[in-house]
Amino acid sequence: MGELTPKTGYMLEVDHKTLLKSDDLYQYILKTSVYPREAEVLKELRNANLAHPKGYMSTAPDGGQFFSLLLKLINARKTLEIGVFTGYSLLTTALSLPHDAHITAIDVDKDVYQEYALPFIQKAGVEHKINFIHSPALPFLDNLLEDPKEEGSFDFAFVDADKANYINYHERLLKLVRVGGLILYDNTLWGGTVAEDEASVTEYMRPNRQHLMKLNQFLAVDPRIEISQVPVGDGVTLCRRLP
Ligand code: SAH
Ligand code: CA
What we know:
The structure is a single chain. The protein is of the alpha/beta class and 243 residues long. The chain has one domain: Rossmann fold, CATH 3.40.50. Helices cover 39% and strands 18% of the residues. The termini are far apart. The model has no long low-confidence stretch (mean pLDDT 94). The structure holds S-adenosyl-L-homocysteine and calcium ion (CA).
């Protein structure tokens, strides 16, 4: 434990200065910086998806805004998405990429894509950028890797599906994403439970908590990437592939 700094009252090792002290502060961020810039069609998708019983799985709009900017910063043109659900992250990606971009979007659930995501994707005029793959992600990625042309051909990957496989996806994605490209893992703070005792965590959260804690430890020392774990949404870990 450190000492209290007299001027601010912060204890340097343990005090985070902002993130996130209250629900009000989160609402402040959304209202001030996110909602005024969120595309109308994304708002419509988000509102429509409130009706889905698992709508809470959608990417939060502040998280979407964050990776939309990342996509532009690295001039992404060819991307992968694992875990589409009702399409908030996919539509965000499609709106952020240039006209001739290619997004390979994978999900085991085709119905939810067609029913919830596709109408908004069509309305936004970005369907031509998307190749939806109805498959479990792991065999599909292995399939892709059989073609040497696919190696290092992706600029960006967003991983948001079965947490048990994140480490397996990682090995494939390090081959598919180019040097200097980005891999984003979503939900790496798992509702904050990664820093709680197992006993205080609900049964439902436990298995994925274990997977994500293992992933976090693995990524922290993986010499093939540099990382930043950003506490946006439910925690996003950015990995930049090194040469
Ligand atoms: N990115 C989405 C949320 C994804 S939720 C959004 O912004 O709304 C997780 C999704 O992963 C679900 O739609 C689920 O069908 C899918 N999924 C689960 N296991 C999978 C697997 N093995 N391969 C591909 N998709 C999977
Ligand atoms: Ca997620």
